[in-house]
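Ticket #4471: structure output looks truncated?

Reporter: J.K.
Steps to reproduce: submitted the chain below (302 residues) through the standard prediction queue, then opened the result file.
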Amino acid sequence: MLIRFWYIPSLVFIVIFLHFAAVITQFYEFQIRSGFVWWDNVLHALVGVTFGLAWLWFIQVMGWNLSPRLMTISTISVVVALAILWEVAELALLLIAPDIAHSLQMYSTSISEATVDSLSNLLGVVGLVWFIGRKKHKYAFIDRDGTIIWEPEKPEGVDPRETFPLQSADQVQFMDGAIEGLKALQDEGYKLVLVTNQSFLGTPKHPQKVFDQVMERMHSDLAKHGIKFEFEMICPHGPDDGCECRKPKTGGLKEFLAARPADLANSLMFGDRATDGEFAKNLGVRFVKIETNKSFKLPQDI
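Returned output as attached by the reporter:
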């Protein structure tokens, strides 16, 4: 969910403009005389949208990776809390310093009116999260070993279907063009999803501690360039375990895609193995073949 920096000041400017337009044209005075409050409600709904966008932008700046459900709940909760605090402040100011309150065009003169204003804020932010939530995102599904980081050669006797793991975080080495390519994908609006088979993860053949250290190093290096994965599908099973999350099967993405509308027709899968190509076909996305331990290159049409 990308909230660009200029959205926030632009919406703040619109709200301030509408406020002064209301004052200049004496809409507020007209509302008080006639009881016609639609203009004030529209204004408060726009304030709710503005607060909501500001919160979503703050989440993005902080790098918090929230689920769509938690993001929706937090956005609505924050905006409602701010709206209530604002209305309480207006009522308090009206009681303590009524002259100042009227000079600032604060017209929440009762709890019922403040409640209506808060509900207008709520309506605005609900509309915002509904609009954002219905938008389909395009994804770039990324294999790990041999595609974006170096994959060690397999010793003799290792099943060719298995991934031979890195032995330490110091072995993490990005392929030429990998960081630049991932950054370019993000800049083009793709959300990144890591999809990797890590055979026998958590066993002596592939210790969980070493894997975690490798992932931490990879995440740290990518974060320096503003790159992060929206989700990581990591299959810990062996080739003959019969799971649904090992590529080329797509079961590991079932819940993720159910919660996030995806534009699969315009999404991509980057990988170096035949199973990556089969995975792309099963998922219904375009496959981009990367030569194992070679340069990471984007298609020319991206």
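Triage note (M.O.): checked the attachment and the full token line is present. The longest strand covers residues 191-197.
Status: closed, working as intended.
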